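Why predict the complex rather than its parts? Because the way molecules touch one another can change local conformation, and only a joint prediction can capture that. The input here totals 397 residues.
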Amino acid sequence: MSARVFEVFRRERAGAPMQHAGSLVAPDARFAEIYAREQYGRRGESDALWLVPREAVDQVDGFVDEFDLKYRRVDGYSIKERLKEARERAGTTPAHAG
Amino acid sequence: MDTRTAEFLEHVQSGGLVEAGDWMPDEYRARLLKFVEMHANSELMGILPERDWILRAPTLQRKLALTAKIQDEAGHAQLLYRIVEDLGKPREAALDDLVAGRSKFHNVFHYPTRSWGDVGVIAWLVDAAAIISQKALLKCSYAPYARIMRKICWEESFHILHGRDVVLTLVTGTPEQRALVQEALDRWWEPLMMFHGNPIPADEDPMIGWRIKSQANEDARQQFLEGYVPQVWELGLTLPDPKLRRLDDGTWSYTEPDWEKLMAVVSGNGPASEERIAFRRLSRADVDWVARTVLAEAA
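Output of the joint prediction:
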């Protein structure tokens, strides 16, 4: 006699991503569906749900930027000073405002 | 305080969030669990005063709306007991403690409902007071609770409107209907003023220290007074407190509630405490066979 935890993911509308919404406890998948419809969809707030037994979820975390790979991101580039210098050498004014 | 606890405290105080599987100090877990359990209990017990009026609702529309509100509250209790379970306390233990009087629920659910006027006042003002606390909980350091609060607040906003609609119908009705609202308001004002708890300075409140709560009790009450007293007065209704007025600095003065009385009420000595707990105990025993059957079938 035991119940399982199901993680609930919901989609607000077709085309939107599935997002984690919470969890529920149910004796089996049939009851999980009934509870999920009531707790996560009865106000029309969801277009679809995914029910996943908690033990089926493998969490992966710990993303450490050990090598400071900021050249892969926009905040890895600072061009303001050099752009100013380039314009001065060329004797031009900014092509775009701001 | 050990280093790990100090680091955790620093993390939550600087806006960091905590997930269910994360390490947390025992004190944080214990305080959070007790708080969410009381919230869950309150949703469950909050059904009972309104349940009495489903069969006596004045119109079919009102009956349907009240039933929907009650269904929402049962749903909130389900979501909140899930949080409690993930913090380490099985739902069965929480329900056992509730019917044994070992855990608490909000003061306002320890009072009887005497007329349909009560239904309007509860749905409008009790829910308004509750949503102020609940909105502040959106910033709770425990992320699973904060996420569930988003869903709960979304549903609560309909409850307040429903309550206001009931009150507006009564105050625009016959003198007897108007008197029902006024009489209900006179009885509910004291519990409403107690609802947010006694004033504890924010820097002395461990619940704020752990960032489980982010709003001091008195701030919540002031927000309630500022938001709702003018709305009550504009309907020509009165509130039974001669000291109630807005001061020049924008805060409200009021007669200090009897905080010992509040403690007695939430400890199970309110006018309807015994009856409500007894009813919950009865319903629990009544549906026990359902739980046993579905679990046996699933096994």
